[in-house]
Automatic annotation (TrEMBL):
GO biological process, one term: transmembrane transport
Topology in the lipid bilayer: Multi-pass membrane protein
Domain (Amino acid permease/ SLC12A) ranges: 24-419
Gene Ontology cellular component terms for the protein in this record: membrane
Source organism (scientific name): Stenomitos frigidus ULC18
Record keywords, A-Z: Membrane, Transmembrane, Transmembrane helix
Transmembrane segments: 27-46, 52-73, 94-120, 132-151, 158-180, 200-223, 235-253, 283-312, 333-357, 363-387, 399-422, 428-445
Compartment annotation: Membrane
Protein name listed in UniProt: Amino acid permease
Principal subcellular localization: membrane
């Protein structure tokens, strides 16, 4: 194993997170309780009665990606496992660009879901005839996130676990009520994929994949996890699979529940509240709205937690300023990286709000940018896996049978971001993200010219042992 991993001198609190707490990080980053309130209706707009199938296909695709990620997670337990594995196998430039992309992905996710928190906080307040200014709600959200992220990693994961689990159980209760009111009968239009086209499924698949991004974030916790070589891979795989099963069931119930409603499923802003009213359980709808609000909050916390661990690793390796690699002496959290991240995550949506951009638009813009970062990481790690195995003379046909479909699967939404050309301003977002990646590439080339030893140290830190964690 590497010197960096063995020392456990990272400064972060070692061996403090159990498997459920590790799982909470990945599940919190997915925010499965928030997706039925936002993403499933968008998928339905394209896939219609094939919405459940779209999520089934997405679950299989993300499971394949998780297997490629876990090849390294079983052998490395560092905050930068993914970008380090990419750099080791695809070159230092690819590794640094991957780390750069991960930072953007997690922080853009935090901005997006904080906007989701604002939207649903006002949905809840509206039930009592109240509304709050978005900037006030942004402030409340970021202060809560900062407190838990700064204070204690274990405290923050426990909070994520409790809030997300409660929200999921409430939504599952609604889904079961809807199915029960329909006599648990098979919904023939959905099962037979009535009026579903291949193009609709493809477009729906692009949107469905967006619902899973962040499932790999348990890998950023490194040695903070007890038995990391077992618990992190399990968290990565099972967070994707269990969230997928949840999406399949809830999407099926939502489509069924809206079958005879005057307003189409994809035309309502609060589908779970409407579904609760249709089912005659209005109070459950209010409770779910509160749960969705907290789901966005936990996703913001999970994103800040993951993003700051990547910043911490990049700072410790001196790829970014060394101050980012420092740890608070009492809390053992990367306090400088956390402070910088929460400031950025707060100031950007605040500035955009002052410019008149709505929270819903901010959610869409930054959710899209975040997805570009995740897709790049998933493609690169799925390529790095078989290369590592080939170098170790352990590559088998079944490894390629996992890696190749995973790469092709992730390329589908990437290509769809360019063709057909999306409407303004989404048509400019891919190019903005590419420009951001060019900065990462410039940073890498500068380091290789001026500080080649830093690159050598990074490669040594992420040396994979073929036996560790096996």
């Amino acid at each position: 194993m590497t010197t960096y991993s063995k020392q456990r001198a990272l400064g972060l609190r070692a061996d403090c997170l159990s498997f459920p707490e590790t799982m909470a990080q990945s599940v919190g980053n997915i925010a499965p309780a928030a997706m039925p309130a936002v993403s499933i209706g968008l998928v339905f707009a394209s896939a219609g009665n094939g919405t459940w199938l779209t999520f089934l296909i997405a679950t299989i695709g993300l499971a394949l990606v998780s297997i490629n990620i876990n090849h390294f997670a079983r052998r490395l337990s560092l905050p930068g496992t993914i970008y380090g594995a990419i750099g080791k196998n695809l070159g230092p430039t690819a590794g640094i660009v991957a780390g750069w992309a991960m930072v953007a992905a997690y922080l853009c996710t935090a901005i997006a879901v904080m906007s989701g928190f604002v939207i649903y906080a006002n949905v809840v307040l509206n039930e009592f005839g109240l509304q709050a200014p978005p900037i006030l709600l942004y402030t409340i959200c970021i202060l809560i996130v900062w407190f838990y992220a700064f204070t204690d990693i274990q405290l923050s994961t426990v909070l994520m676990l409790l809030l997300e689990l409660t929200s999921i159980l409430l939504i599952l209760s609604l889904a079961i009520i809807v199915l029960a009111q329909h006599g648990f009968a098979i919904d023939t239009p959905q099962v037979l994929l009535k009026d579903v086209s291949p193009e609709g499924l493809r477009l729906g698949l692009v949107l469905a994949i967006f619902s899973y991004v962040g499932f790999e974030s348990a890998t950023t916790l490194g040695d903070e996890v007890k038995r990391p070589f077992q618990n992190i891979p399990r968290a990565v795989l099972w967070s994707a699979v269990l969230s997928g099963l949840f999406f399949i069931l809830v999407s099926y119930a939502e489509v069924l529940g809206f079958r005879k409603y005057a307003i189409a499923f994809d035309k309502t802003d609060v589908p779970l509240s409407v579904l609760s009213n249709l089912a005659g359980v209005e109070l459950l709808g209010l409770a779910i709205a509160v749960g969705v609000m907290f789901s966005f909050l936990t996703c913001c916390l999970a994103s800040i937690t993951a993003g700051t661990r990547v910043l911490y690793s990049l700072g410790r390796q001196q790829i970014l300023p060394k101050s980012l690699g420092t740890v608070h002496p009492q809390n053992q959290t990367p306090h400088v990286a956390i402070f910088l991240s929460v400031i950025v995550v707060f100031l950007i949506p605040t500035a955009l709000t002052l410019l008149g951009i709505s929270s819903l638009d901010i959610y869409g813009y930054f959710g899209t940018l975040a997805t570009y970062g995740f897709l790049l990481i998933y493609v690169l790690i799925s390529i790095a896996g078989p290369i590592e195995l080939y170098r170790q003379k352990r590559l088998r046909q079944r490894d390629l049978a996992i890696s190749v479909p995973a790469v092709l699967f992730m390329m589908t939404p990437a290509v769809a971001s360019f063709f057909p050309i999306p409407p303004f301003p989404y048509n400019f977002l891919p190019y903005g993200f590419l420009a951001y990646l060019m900065i990462g590439a410039w940073l890498s080339s500068r380091l290789q010219r001026r500080s080649p030893q830093i690159i050598k140290d990074m490669e040594r830190d992420f040396e994979v042992s073929p036996n560790s964690g096996s």
